[in-house]
Amino acid sequence: MATATEPRRTDIGPPSYERFLPPIIKKNYGKWKYHEILRPGVMVHVAASGDRLFTVRAASPRLLSITRIRKYADFADKYCGGHLRFTSRNNVEFLLTEEANIEPLIKDLAALGHAVGGIGNAISNIVHTQGWVHCHSAATDASGVVKAVMDDLHPYFAERTLPGKLRIALACCLNMCGAVHCSDIAILGIHRRPPRVQGGLNKICEIPNVVASCPTAAIRPANVDGQPTVEIDEDNCMFCANCFSVCPALPMADPLNDGLSIWVGGKVSNARTEPTFSKLAIPFLPNNPPRWPEVVQAVRTIVDVWANGARRFERMGEFIARIGWPRFFELTGIEFTKEHIDDYRHAGLTYKRSAQIRHGR
Amino acid sequence: MAKSGGNGTPMLDELEKGPWPSFVTQIKEAAEIKEQAQDLLKLLERSYHEKIGHWKHGGIVGVLGYGGGVIGRYNDLQSEYPSIAHFHTLRVNMPSGWFYTSEALRTICDIWERHGSGLTNMHGSTGDIILLGTSTDELEPTFKELTDNDFDLGGSGSDLRTPSCCVGPARCEWACYDTLHITNDLTHHFQDELHRPAFPYKFKIKCAGCPNDCVASIARADMSIIGTWRDDIQIDQKEVTAAAKAGLDIQKDVCARCPTQCMDWDGKQLSIDNANCVKCMHCINAMPRALQPGKDRGATILLGAKAPIVEGALLSSVLVPFIKLEPPYDELKDLIERIWEFWGEHGKNRERVGELIQRVGLGNFLEAIEIEPVPQMIAHPRENPYVFYDEYFEEGDDESEDDQ
Ligand code: SF4
Ligand code: SF4
After folding, report:
1. Is B7 exposed, middle or buried (0-12, 13-18, 19+ CB in 10 A)?
2. Which of B312, B359, B366, B358 is nearest to B339 (CA)?
3. Is the CB of B262 under 6 A from ligand 2?
4. CB-CB: which of B29, B144, B280 is closest to A272?
5. In this structure, are residues B65 and A10 in contact, taking their beta carbons and an 8 Å threshold?
6. Does the Cβ of B290 fall within 6 Å of ligand 2?
7. A154 to chain B: which residues are within 8 Å by CB?
């Protein structure tokens, strides 16, 4: 332990990853030849040296207690020489050199409630945000919706039976602390009621900043009872909550009007087609805790339509591009509404600007 | 200590059922040892009944000398949930690639048991280790113990956020540059920008080893560094034949899906017109034993991605079609600093660099940061004829004097 007289350490940056790499990775760093998926959730990477590194990927809820992390650490000690890592989608990965350790590790993980899976043409963990657990601007919970959806999609995580990759993400408001806007399926919390101006706003917020924060200029300076404040032109509010981010005296959350929307067909990978945004599939579903049955059902329907119709390697967006949006709405039974049609900047670019329409059945 | 859960949380208890690991179980595990987690459980149950969150932002909290790294959070029912009246988050810089030893993880757990809620996110959206929830007076002691153990805070607010990367050469045969090394290097090089917010808004850097982009850099990072190559894809014809024998329909599932139709399979030999390959990775993903990226490797640098807030979502677009990335990465660092300089001077409050480029035009932005425009930067040339020319000639001007 450092003593009080020692200078305070700052700006030291993260510890070097090199301290944490297992010896087999240090030895074969940058010299991997190929990998193979051995079974759901298990893959082997083969190095030019012939060394084989086994990875076991287990589902993880992202929100982890220190008790559970210590359990992961115990497993790493027992099977992996003390090494493990986490993935960009919040799964935990155990890195093994002994093939014989795979089976017992999977048993231990299962006993703790962690299925292995999510590799290759499977549905991996849902990237998500904080929701009601910790976020000030959430229109819905995040972890609860994710839990309910993944309980339902679990077979697609733990068994590999899909045409291609399918990536799901959830953000509990339009701030989108996650790549939900480029996901095969995105679940997005939305507000539908304009902010309510609270008394004493001028004491905690700079009025010019609040006015400037609105992308549609729906906020104007005003004077109420001799106090400077703002007023909202409700017809121009698009519920982005940008003003609330700047000024806590403009709350937007509202149990009667908040809910979720579903977006489809986005991706970040460059494989085959270029990266693209997700598009609106369902404008609004009710916030229905604890298990959000409407959201679970909607996601399941979309996944199944894709799983039954997509060609090998075809992602959601590529599949929809091939069959066309009218057919997507027909197959999923989702109603097409006015809200599906863009009316923000450059909306015209999203209109169908050709006579290429599938009329036949 | 009061028992957590039980009949007190009927809604949340529903989320302990089912095969997916439950976050509720995690909060309950922490509640066995930490009072804050007990209160959090109760408050969350209340949100489930009321369908509304109970957290407020605002107020500057942090550790001495840093402007970022701590997210201030307060609940709006403080007298009922006093142990989480303040419930601030610390963002802790993760090691590149999210590799840990069990020892390092235990160290973090022990610190967090002493000073916080016992709850974490492994990891947050930007990639940091998230230590979820503690009071204001625990921030400095937590920070001290973290730094004593070689961990430091990440970014928040209008600063550089913790750069992150894919697993890269540590365990991926497709990595076209050392994503871990560069991420660690940039994070250390830009400590001041990370810890002391001085930008118009946030700036994220993500390093993906190849165009599969496993860290979603093109959607989530202001600067997306995506590995690529410029010579020929390496082909092992024996393995191509083996893949075909094993059941892969090479014509239909590989060649026909190539975006530029630059592949040809005659049943014996696979050939690639590499000049037309756009390095999309599809064929390599489909036949990992047969095909490999080329040997002349580097990265494409793209700029400007962001989520919708404020002016609408953007994907990053090409800034440098190809760059070699070798330590000490001076060319890249110099480029980053030129971008920050222009953005710092011209960016409006809360304007991401992508939005600034939309506002001033990519052409003007390139001129300002001294990069030549090249056709790789665009999907196609402009369609509208409204060109803003900078100057025009008047009668009597000497056209030969245009370089004065
Ligand atoms: S982005 Fe490419 S190099 Fe990095 S892990 Fe993914 S496939 Fe491998
Ligand atoms: S990487 Fe993509 S573009 Fe290049 S040959 Fe393979 S499939 Fe075609």
Report:
1. exposed
2. B366
3. yes
4. B280
5. yes
6. no
7. 18-20
What's the one-letter identity of residue B277? C
Q: How confident is the model at residue A161 (pLDDT cuts 50, 70, 90)?
A: confident
Mean pLDDT, rounded, of chain A: 94
Kindly state the average pLDDT of the residues B360-369.
97
What are chain B's domains? 10-52 (no CATH), 56-148 (3.30.70.2500), 164-228+299-377 (3.30.413.10), 234-292 (3.30.70.20)
CA B395 to chain A, closest CA, distance in angstroms equals 40
Percentage, residues of chain B above pLDDT 70: 96
Shortest distance between the Cα of A354 and any Cα of chain B, in A, equals 17
Q: Shortest CA distance to B200 belongs to which of B157, B231, B147, B153?
A: B157
Quick check: A275 contacting B, CB < 8 Å? yes
pLDDT at B3: 44
**Rounded Cα gap, residues A45 and B169, in angstroms:** 12
If you measure from the C-alpha of residue A202 to the centroid of ligand 1, how many angstroms do you get, rounded to a whole number? 49
pLDDT attached to residue A176 = 83
Answer yes or no: do A275 and B55 touch at CB < 8 A: no
Cβ pairs bridging A and B (under 8 Å): 370
Q: CA A275, CA A269: separation in Å to the nearest integer? A: 6
Using an 8 Å Cβ cutoff, are A187 and A262 in contact? yes
Atom 4 of ligand 1, residue of closest alpha carbon: B209
pTM: 0.95
Question: What's the gap in Å between B208 CA and the centre of ligand 1?
Answer: 6
Tokens of A125: 């963990």
Which amino acid is located at B258 in the chain? Answer: C
Residue B31 has pLDDT above 90, yes or no: yes
Indicate which atom in ligand 2 lies nearest the CA of residue A271. 2
C-alpha to C-alpha distance for B71 and B58, rounded to whole angstroms = 9
Nearest CA to ligand 2 atom 4: B277
- Write down the H helix ranges in B203-269: 217-220, 237-245
Residues of B in contact with A136 (CB under 8 A): 53, 55-57, 73
pLDDT band for position B314 (cuts 50, 70, 90): very high
- Asked if A208 has any chain B CB less than 8 Å from its own CB, the reply is no
Asked if A179 is an interface residue toward chain B (Cβ–Cβ < 8 A), one would say yes
pLDDT at A6: 67
pLDDT digits (tens, 9 = 90+) for A82-116: 999 999 999 999 999 999 999 999 999 999 999 99
Neighboring chain B residues of A60 at a CB cutoff of 8 Å:
21, 122
Whether the pLDDT of residue A1 is over 50: the answer is: no
Tell me the ipTM for this assembly: 0.95
**Pairwise CA distance, residues B193 & B219, whole Å:** 22
